[in-house]
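Progress narrative, work stream C.
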Amino acid sequence: MNNRIILFFVALALIFQSCYKDDTSGATRELSTIRIDLGINEGAIVDLNLNEEYLFSPTITQDRDLPLSYEWEVDHVILSTEKDFTYSGSRLGTYKARLKVSNEDGSTFHEFTIRVNSQYEEGLLILGEDATEEATLSFIPAANDGLIAQTPMENVDINSFAKSNPDNSLGKKPTDLAVRQLQIFVSSEEGGISMINYKTLGLEGVVRSPDFPDFKPVIMNIQDNLSRSSLILTRSGKIYSLATLEYIISNYANADTVRLDLMSQYVLDLNYTNNYYWDSKNSKLWNFRNIPVNTGDELRGQEIVSFFTASGRTHVLSVDKNDPTSFRKTVFPETIAETRTSPPDVLERHYFTNSNMTLNVQSKTLLDEYYLKLIYANGRDLYRYFYTTNTVPTSPFASLDIPGEITSLAKNEANKELYVGVYDPNATGLKGSVVVYDLETGAKKATFANIADKPIKLFYKIRK
């Protein structure tokens, strides 16, 4: 019995050996390897604008001329089996894609990413006010390297909001612009607060408050994070609370009896948002957070010139109400005080006389913590105050070389650009311009003349 089994396996081995020889005798060949040249590297990103079409036309080579098949897959769905493939970016987003090319010997893959962008993906938003006081929104797209200064004039998109929303309005007397996640908030005194899609600039909703006739928003302390409420300062100097998810306006109880000047800054710390406001009637700087605090009697008899919080310190520059040449710099901790009753800590007091103060309460200001300076504008001139010193500049670092006066400031620290909004009431047609300076050196880099309405607020929009 065992001998029969042995003979069976020997015979089976001979059969297999015979088959192998028959298969290879006179027919030995190498596999036909496929090579794909798609004109882009493996893993590269192909950027498209919304509704833009892109033709993929690969060059395929292989070791032998064998029949080929193709599969184009985008977002895990096979869209084509042809050699050439045209993709239309009809949906905003980022999608994994691959081309699979096969012959009878196997398959080769080329993987890449398709990113469908809005034409408003990254660049400078310009909230403007036209001759009828209507709010407008225009856009200067960033160049490929993110620099506005290198954007051609013909790429500027005028009245972007109107193009995306031909039947809607942002309201009259625009006042502020803020971003939270994937929404842009635009406020106007007569139009409430409009929510706009961050990618497309399409209108998504409007918050008005008929229950509060004095709700005319001027400054929105809206944080770009997951917080659910923000403080809104109105024309009357009263604060309201905006539920940024539910779009509900409500009274902010802690400010019911306080009327504030139309200036503010907010700073997010670990647990709370610090909201700073000036109360000129009582000469106090308020910080509305979990427990409202103020500077108490420390600034009694003072009128505000400017305030800001930087690097964990609150800086207040003020002037004596009875002597317009007598100034004071006071530095508090960021939170100002820990409780409602305890006096504020004062880290620094400095008194000085100046009969030619270039910084005043009407100055347009922009905080630049990286270079430890406050950039501000008066009329046609730009100044920079290095706030770790006690010296306020007497001469500008730059002055406009185009007609008009400065109405707004913004920056892009990543690319070291300073944006200056300019309004020329005597211009024909569009009266708003933007001048770009180097944020560090102050050197002028570009001018976009007469490309918008009066610039109320500039905002550099990053890619999200």
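Work stream C, second folded protein:
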Amino acid sequence: MYKQGGCPYGTHRSIDPVGSLPQPAQKVDNSMEIWDNEILVEVETLNIDAASFRQISKQAEGDPGKIGEIILATVAQRGKQHNPVTGSGGMLIGRVIDIGPALQNKRQNISPGDRIATMVSLSLTPLHINEIISVRPETCQVDVRAQAVLFASGIYARLPEDMPDKLALAVLDVAGAPAQTAKIVKPGNTVLVIGAGGKSGLLCLHEAKKRAGITGKVIALDLTTNALARIRQAGSADAIIQADAQEPVAVLKKVEEASAGALADVTINCVDIPGTEMTSILATKDGGMVYFFSRSLTCWIMSACSVLCHSHLL
């Protein structure tokens, strides 16, 4: 028997404070008896947000077993994988078990048995973990025996059968960054991508190059030699800068050189560490735009430029 009258946004699941939206809630109801407007998912893998996984790994001193214990403790306390330090979650892949009757006519693109990746954050997704099977630090992924609930407002993507799960997750996890890049980059723009050698950065480079066109210029910035090698291999950057994004003045000088003093019309910040906000703003010309993709960044609004902050809640 399904409970009825659940809020499409999941407020009926919020315990602390009662009735709040589930993402900012301190605790949600993670019982797996779904309401008539919810979807029940058998979870296979948690794709933990990179900043969150780094913090958990540091707390666990790199021990995969302790990483699992911390995740179990968080879910037991909060009813969701919502890192109390970083405030972020991640996403999951799993198989649809049940679709509440109030959604069955509205969700005709999926059926029980379909494998999906959630496109809403674990920080708002009721989750119950029975067992952690393995922890994979190299991909920030955790294989589990678990169940989760999607609300009526939750979005998801069916996993393609012709693509490995690892690749599908990598793309879906950062899909918001290149999508926003496509919206904000105009022909002829000078675009700076900070953290250009990571997953989101490489996709943003590709999209920026396509949108800025032959009259524009795309500048890629990253620190490590491995990241720079990936950028060169991708071939989407007109100029490549090796620099520490936490050093704003040093980066400013290099961007001035790469842009002939013009600075960036659009700066896209894809790094997942704080301390790079002022670098992004300084490197952007008056009237330009800064797009912060990572939730772990603090967004600043200054008269020097307009700032678009994307807190994708993953």
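The domain at 176-309 is CATH 3.40.50.720 (Rossmann fold). No further action is required on this item.
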